[in-house]
Specification:
There is one protein chain. The chain is an alpha+beta fold and 160 residues long. The chain has one domain. Helices cover 18% and strands 36% of the residues. Strands 1, 2, 3, 4, 5, 6, 7, 8, 9 and 10 form a ten-stranded mixed β-sheet that branches. A hairpin with a 3-residue loop joins β9 and β10. The termini are far apart.
Amino acid sequence: MDRAEFWSTKSPLPVFEAVVFEHPAFDQTFYLVANQFEEVVLGGVAHIPTPMTVKPPDQTGDATAKLSIAFPRAVVGREFKRKLGLVRASGSREPIVVRYRVFLGETDAPKVTWNLFAADGQGITFSPDTVQVNATADNPMRRLAGPIYDPALFTGLQLV
């Protein structure tokens, strides 16, 4: 097999793209698998089949990892609204964890895993036709955290 044939040949192994949504306010973790017709057990957990378009994170360069997923609103819109309502009702400031995993051939363990967080501003958006989820590697809980005051390090207030 020459180089051109190798790169032009598609792998015969089945590929499963799984997306997991986690948050402390959710009643249970949300497991989805892309574009399958029936439930698939991946990593020992049953994943719900859902039509989706996935733009995986770019693996080249120094850019921040960004995942974009689009779901048909008619399929998952009501469930997304319910889950976001649970987060809003709890008053939690924790970010929604979005875990993107690719299973290649074997369903025991993923070959690729991305642990990301739903973006602040436009993390989950609704349009008349789709639900768009944007996730990045930037944890919003750590972004605005300042240093904790320690009198041993910052001695300026000892004389006050």
